[in-house]
Write a sequence for this structure.
């Protein structure tokens, strides 16, 4: 498995597993270990800057998902489009 | 024969209005104008073309072109509340069957949960959840996307199918979603390619979409960003109304939203 795929697969799997995602939000290191990431890959993900995420080979869409996994929206926080929903839903 | 009675292109996301209230107001006004115009067209079917954001499709396999054939679809709820709306199995399957001898092997999707890329436009174009909607997925997210020319051509195949195979009097509206220029998680993020966007809209509403379809995907990617490539869905829509002229309904370059936000209407003659 190539490095870029391994890292991307980690993000995709977390995205589909709420329990694992909650654990990841608390502590990312066990997930990095279990996916066999290299020291460099872990360092780039820990840094988390756009250039670092690009260098580790994370697709832009998965970069956004990675950032959300690291810092989930608090429960009850407004959604991206909430300001428009009354009008869109006619309520 | 059925008829394509209208085509629309529109961005498929909204961001909080804080700090850009006037622009955000014009964008949502433009989207509501699209709603009003589609309601006036009284469609029997809406074909909604756009991309998935690695929510249904995955790293497991890249799907270039697909059509949702299910009787109903329930949206993911990422941005707009999860909702269930009717599909149109007979229409969608007829499209897949008609496309095959016309050069397109469409993946038929029974299980798909449309994400915001489809669900916001869906909410805009029919809040009543009563008009059957056929989602058409055009990959612009993962390598290798279909060429703009092929997307346009697929739209023309849709038009032919509607005219040759659908019941007399069936009224079909086609909506292409996504764009306009935006760079997501790339060094250019925040740039809006105003000149490219405005030229794209101007040529489309002048009935010159076939010219735009001659762009390569690489060209659109380079000039309007990885998100900008979503306009291939607009070209699919335009291909269903070849040569149709139209109207710009809104365009707002909003760097704070890292996007050029746009909407157009194309009207066939004698719709």
């Amino acid at each position: 498995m190539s490095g870029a795929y391994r890292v991307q697969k980690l993000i995709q799997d977390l995205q589909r597993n709420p329990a694992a995602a909650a654990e990841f939000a608390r502590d990312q290191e066990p997930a990095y270990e279990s996916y066999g990431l290299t020291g460099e890959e872990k360092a780039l993900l820990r840094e988390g800057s756009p250039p670092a995420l690009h260098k580790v080979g994370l697709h832009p869409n998965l970069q956004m998902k990675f950032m959300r996994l690291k810092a989930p929206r608090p429960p009850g926080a407004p959604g991206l489009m909430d300001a428009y929903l009354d009008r869109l839903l006619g309520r | 024969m059925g008829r394509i009675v209208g085509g629309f292109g529109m961005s498929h996301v909204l961001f909080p209005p804080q700090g850009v209230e006037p622009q955000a107001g014009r964008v949502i006004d433009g989207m509501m104008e699209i709603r009003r115009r589609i309601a006036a067209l009284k469609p029997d079917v809406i074909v909604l073309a756009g991309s998935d954001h690695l929510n249904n499709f995955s790293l497991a396999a890249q799907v270039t072109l697909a059509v949702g054939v299910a009787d109903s679809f329930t949206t993911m709820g990422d941005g707009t509340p999860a909702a269930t709306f009717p599909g149109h199995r007979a229409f969608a399957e007829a499209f897949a069957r008609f496309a095959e001898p016309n050069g397109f092997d469409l993946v038929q999707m029974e299980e798909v949960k449309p994400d915001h890329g489809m669900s916001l436009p869906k909410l805009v174009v029919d809040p009543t959840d009563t008009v059957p909607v056929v989602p058409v997925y055009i990959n612009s997210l993962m390598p290798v996307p279909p060429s703009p020319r092929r997307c346009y051509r697929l739209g023309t195949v849709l038009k032919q199918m509607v005219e040759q195979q659908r019941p007399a009097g069936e009224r079909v509206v086609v909506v292409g979603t996504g764009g306009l220029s935006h760079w997501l998680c790339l060094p250019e993020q925040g740039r809006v390619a105003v000149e490219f966007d405005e030229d794209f809209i101007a040529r489309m509403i002048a009935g010159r979409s076939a010219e735009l379809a001659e762009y390569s995907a690489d060209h659109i990617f380079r000039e309007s960003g990885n998100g900008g490539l979503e306009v291939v869905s607009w070209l699919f829509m335009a291909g269903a109304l070849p040569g149709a002229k139209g109207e710009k309904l809104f365009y707002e370059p909003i760097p704070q939203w890292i996007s050029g936000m746009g909407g157009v209407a194309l009207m066939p003659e004698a719709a």
